[in-house]
Amino acid sequence: MAAVIARRRLGFVAALFSVAALAGTGLPATPAAPAPPEPPQAELHEQSLTASGTRVQPGWTRDLSASATTSDLVGIRWRGDGGAQFAVERRAGDSWEVVTQVGVNDNGPDPGTDEAARVARSEHLSEPVWVGDASGLRVRLVSGSASSVALAAVESPAGDDVPVSASLSATPKIISRVEWGADEGLRLRNCPGGPTYMDAVRLAVFHHTAGENAYSPADSYRIVRAIYVYATNVLGYCDIHYNFLVDKYGQIFEGRYGGVYWPVLGAHAVGFNSRTTGVALLGTYSTVSPTGASIEAVQQLLAWKLGMHGVDPTKPAVYTTAGNDKFAPGTTMAQPIVIGHRDTWFTDCPGQAAYNLLPVIRFSVAARMLTAGPDGYPPWTPGAGPRLVGMNEFGKLYPAGSQPDVTTPAYWRGFPIGRGVALLPGGAGGYELDGWGGLHRFGSAPAPTGAAYWAGWDIARDVELAPGGVGGYVLDGWGGIHPFGGAPALTGGPYFSGMDAARALVVLPGGTSGYVLDAWGAVHPVGGAPAVSGGPYWIGRDWARDLRPASDGNGLLLLDAFGGIWALGGATTPGAVPYFGYEFARALATVSGTPGGYVLDRSGRIHSFGGAPAVNQAQPNFVLARSLAAA
User: What is the tens place of the pLDDT at every residue in 276-303?
Assistant: First the structure.
């Protein structure tokens, strides 16, 4: 009768990537890791369960107990009725017990993506089901009809996997792909271009994987490896569906390749993958409640992950879906920051017992986020190039290039009030500016005496140091320039009374003159500085973003919201620049003696231009990027 129609041995291949290979691309670089010992191999078997073209009806059963197929994880492939439901059963003594009931796989990539295009097919595939070391297995059609039914089975042998203890720190212990034995060749064979990165994470989607709940801590490694093989070799995805997986013991596993710190696009919720992170509990939780250890791990993980990406836990996330059978493309909705998979699609996932815990999970995640400090980035070793520091609107600082690690002096979680950052010569310290004019020193910067402050009034726009780094200036939105730390007064500049129009300040060598950039692109001399001409002017359009001296000291460079860089006052027009074509640019930095400069985009990526060397970043993606400073 049924014959084995395919049998493939999947070799595990270590794929290593260097940071240098990605430098300057604007994409996050995943640090290279040493090659691990070769993990156990997995085998995928595919076996037909019905004769070709034969249609079966509810009640049809196929006993696989005597089959040559060894099954630790299984899925069903069929043609015809997309609403068909199958029960996967395992032998329990002299009787049978249902492991779970499956229909068409309810995960998947977003429509319109390259991944969605490559997995389009006419046949139906179920989600994978972990059955463990079952002594007997059978498949039964519960409802609907089906033809050309086949079994896809993954044999996932045990290895030298060492379970880990759950972390009690603010940063969770996450078992890396290297540690759980991911064969990077599987994802590269399907999608050689590597992972896709989003510009942000706005909310989390909570799942369960379905399948047997009776597994050991070491078995969890086998389950994750098996799901990965099924996702890439049966479903045809670029990688495993989820960003993270959590077992009932509280072990957290890295899912999709690309780095746990960064916003990696998954395939866990059709239409809701963009700007979300997907976390799945290993097991089935329709009637059985998740363990306390697993829920604690989920709460710890999501507070860390969502906090790192600047999610505001005090308000719903405004989300626009890419579309699926439940929500039309472009549907915008307000969602809690943690939702269940069933909130996005016609599915029972994450199971009713797990779904009932969502209010508790949301409350705990929000409470942890509100009481946590600024979230960390991967261990940072300064690299080559100039010293740069980026800042987001919550005040979090991110070093880049050769800048040493930076301690964030002020942090306003969920309150986007950060406005500027300035570095002392040599990068030994500096100042953060908040919207009220507050200056927050870090490193060896002296106390900012004499600074202006407008409590409750968001009017501060830029902070610049005086030449030599002794004191400096705060620019307000009306054009007022306020010295601090003993810096001399700068007078004679523009003033837009009652109008929030000033955007950036440049102080020329000597400290007695400079320029103010307004929102429309006009550059105004201060303190007798010579006028500059030939720049852009967008009357009524707030498109000007930043102004900096050219690195050779001749003229100025102006950054617009689209990434355009304008050479003024004798500056040399830069070469290729990172033009985005939409309002994505945030800040500009130049370094004396270094050609060109650097542009910060709103996702936190630093782009070099005009011959400036590319730099590595402590965190190549961060939300609400605001300011960039160079030492």
Answer: 999 999 999 999 999 999 999 999 999 9
CA dist 326 and 337 (Å) reads: 20
250 within some domain? yes
Structure confidence by residue, pLDDT tens digits, 369-398 = 888 888 778 889 999 999 999 999 999 999
The reply to whether 103 and 45 lie within a common domain is yes
Q: Which amino acid is at 194?
A: G
- Residues paired with residue 89 on neighbouring β-strands, in sequence order: 98, 138
How far are the Cα atoms of 24, 251, 279, 385 from residue 188, in angstroms, in the given order? 22, 26, 23, 31
At 19, is the secondary structure helix, strand, or coil? Answer: helix
Asked if the structure places residue 380 within a domain, the reply is: no
Q: Are residues 139 and 229 in the same domain?
A: yes
Domain that holds residue 172: 4-371
| Confidence (pTM) | 0.75
Contact status, residue 346 vs residue 325, Cβ threshold 8 Å: yes
**Residue 84 counted as domain residue:** yes
Helix, strand, coil shares of the chain, percent, nearest 5, are: 15, 30, 55
Domain match, 155 and 193 both? yes
Q: How many domains does the chain have?
A: 2
Integer CA distances (angstroms), 418 to 410, 436, 463, in order:
9, 9, 11
Q: Is-contact 504 517, C-beta < 8 A?
A: yes
Q: Which is nearest to 207 in space by CA: 303, 276, 120?
A: 276
Flag whether 474 is in a domain: yes
